[in-house]
Write a structure and sequence with these properties.
Layout (H helix, E strand, L loop, with lengths): L3 E5 L2 E4 L7 H6 L4 E4 L12 H10 L3 E4 L9 H13 L4 E4 L4 H14 L2
Helix pairs in contact: 3-4
Amino acid sequence: MAQIQFLSPEFAVGSQIIPDDLENLAADGFKAIICNRPDNESPGQPSYAALEAAALAAGIQAVHQPIYPNRMTVADAESFMQHLETLPKPVLAFCRTGTRSSFLFNACARMSGR
């Protein structure tokens, strides 16, 4: 299972998850996931399609917002903020280590003045 860290009561970040993790995430109360990894970033990484199918089967909404390392833009943060405003909570965003997802969350906090 991925390492998960809550950055707020309704938002957590984590490292790469696999389809088998989705039932446990649903049991832990997660209602949505945001995948910040591009497909085929690393050998053996599960595809977003496989993660989305497992998420939907577990009753979790899924969004794919791939962010390439060191290439995050303001538009990426704005899109991420929109996902955070509309997805059911709590939300888990993940990438390879959780760093990109954390950066996006912190950028949204700065943009919204929180």
